[in-house]
Structure formats: structure tokens, C-alpha cells
Amino acid sequence: MKFPQQQTLREIAHIINSDFVGPEDFPVLGMNEIHVVEPGDIVFVDHPKYYDKALNSAATIVLINKEVECPEGKALLISDDPFRDFNKLTNHFKPFQPSSASIAPSAKIGKNTIIQPNCFIGNNVVIGDNCIIHSNVSIYDDAIIGDNVVIHAGTVLGGSAFYYKNRPEGFDQLLSGGRVVIKDNVHIGACCTIDKGVTADTTIGEGSMLDNQIQVGHDTVIGKKCLIASQVGIAGCVVIGNEVTIWGQVGITSGITIGDKTVISAKAGVSKSLEGHKHYFGIPAEDFRTKYKEIANIKQIPEILRLLKEKEK
Fold it and tell me: For the chain, what is the mean pLDDT?
């Protein structure tokens, strides 16, 4: 998430009431999660296990809960609670804006696009040409939708990320200031939920087709011409390549990559990154050849046990 205008290190420290290490006028351009940071971004880290990763990332400002040696060319914001202060910055630069109409006056709707009754279109939403948005669709603030997109009834674009810190008093949610971006020629079925990015974009690539009742987590990127069947659950920060086919009720864990032209059979559980141009099934998902060998070996167990018993006699 880029700020509307460049900030200084001192200005950011003032907003969150923190100490800082670095020049007062050190430039700050935005804030992002570690997997999408760029020079000029703030990244937060609150666990020693991830200090090195944050300090060595592309981010040039690190919001951290310990004063450590500052890498050359970077700056630090010292906070007793980086998670809390990251939320403060989101609230400051991307505060929630209530809507006063079903279709916000700031929304831009393209030519020949049809919005059916009972839809909600939020602030600063952009919808391209020749789209059909069916009834009871909710499109939250800042979503970007391309041309020739069809979205069926009951779908929600832009819900908050399922991202929480467990505190003694309860779960504390990391606020979401990102967007949902739907490229051209995408079809989205009924009752799908696509969460916005925490600081960046959740993206559905051009020509992809989503069936009904699909969940797409925050900051996930789905490539071009993918086919995703009903009741698939995709966690946050997943990268799915082009022309991937995912059949019904597949579950995909966060932070992994699925290569181009992968096929994942129904009910598979994907717990690690998958190489492209292969067919996978099972829990955990493995390629067909490996999985069938495994099943064949399991079927031999009764015979192996029988032979062992005969040897013991």
C-alpha cells in the first residue's frame, strides 16, 4: 500500500509515537507485508525468528520491537508492539469510509455494464465495460474489475483478511488496507468470497473461471485461464500459475506456489508448493504416479503380514 504522498521517518514515528533509528527525513513511501515489500516500504516484525528476514528484505524501513543494528541504507522504527502500530498506520492512511448509497458516488461503472438490483458497490470501485453484476453482490471499497466480467448472486469481493494475533484478552485482527483486482473476461460463481489484500492486491487473472462457493484468501494471486470448481478453499498469500485446474473441495494452505498447468483432483489437501504440468490428488496432495505407488504398497501390507506370521510358525 503506497501512501498518498511521501512521508518522512520522523512523521511516521510521530503517528505511532515510537522511537526511530535513521535520518529524520528518511523517505517513507508506503507499507507492505514482507512478501510484497519494495524499497521505501515499512515492514513489521515482532518475533526474533523473523528479524533477519525482515532486516534483509527489500523494505527500507523496519518496524521492530527491539533496537538492533540497522542495515546500511535502511531505517528502524522501534515499537513495543509492531502489530498494533502497523494497524495504527493502516487506520491513519486507509481509514474505513462509510457509504451512504448502494452504489457509491465515487464508483466508476463502464459502458454497457449491468448492475442488478440489491447490489452494493463501495467507494472508489472501478468496474469495466460489458460486465454483469447479479443481485446481492457486495463489492467493497477500492476493488478493480475489468471488462466482460460476470459475477453471480451473493458473492462478496473485499472482505477482511483472516489474519489474527492471539493476545491474552482475545484475537486481535490485522487490518486490511489492500484491494481485490479482477482482470478481464473472468466469471465468478454464486456465493464466492474473495478477501482483499492486507496491504497489496488479491488478484484473479484474465480469463479465469470460478464456480460457486469458493473462498480466496488475502493477497492470493490466481493466474490466467484457471478453472476452479465449487467449495475450494484457498488460504492467503498463495500464488497460482496460469491454466491451473482445481476440482471441488480442494483445500490449499497459505504461502505456497502452484505451477502452471497443474491439475488438482477433488478433495485434495495441498500443504506444500506443487510443480507445474503435473496431476495431483490425495491428502497430502502428491502427483498421481507417486500416490498410486503408495496406494499399491499399502495394499500389499496384509499379504506381507500373512507371510511374516507363516515364518513365525
Answer: 96
The reply to whether 145 and 113 lie within a common domain is: yes
d(CA 206, CA 187): 10
Say yes or no: 86 and 136 in one domain: no
The pLDDT of 7-16, averaged and rounded, is 98
* Number of domains into which the chain is organized: 2
Active-site residue list = 218
- Same domain flag for 129 and 159: yes
What are the cell numbers at 60? 527500507
- For residues 33 and 157, membership in a common domain is answered with no
Residue 256 and residue 127 share a domain: yes
Q: What does residue 83 show for φ and ψ, rounded to 5 degrees?
A: -60, -50
Cα–Cα distance between 147 and 244 in angstroms, integer?
22
How confident is residue 185, by pLDDT bands cut at 50, 70 and 90? very high
Whether residue 218 contacts residue 163, with contact meaning beta carbons closer than 8 Å, is answered with yes
Look at the block and give the residue holding cell 483472516. Answer: 162
pLDDT digits (tens, 9 = 90+) for 217-271: 999 999 999 999 999 999 999 999 999 999 999 999 999 999 999 999 999 999 9
Same structural domain, 264 and 134: yes
In a domain, 303, yes or no: no
Contact between 51 and 67 under an 8 Å Cβ cutoff? The reply is no
Residue 189 in domain: yes
State the average pLDDT over residues 40-57.
96
**Which residue stretches of the chain are H helix?**
9-16, 51-55, 82-93, 288-299, 301-312
Q: Identify whether 287 is part of a domain.
A: yes
- What is the per-residue pLDDT across 74-114, written as a single tens digit (0 to 9) for each? 999 999 999 999 999 999 999 999 999 999 999 999 999 99
Report the alpha-carbon distance of residue 80 to residue 296 in Å, rounded. Answer: 55
Contact by Cβ (8 Å): 285, 268: yes
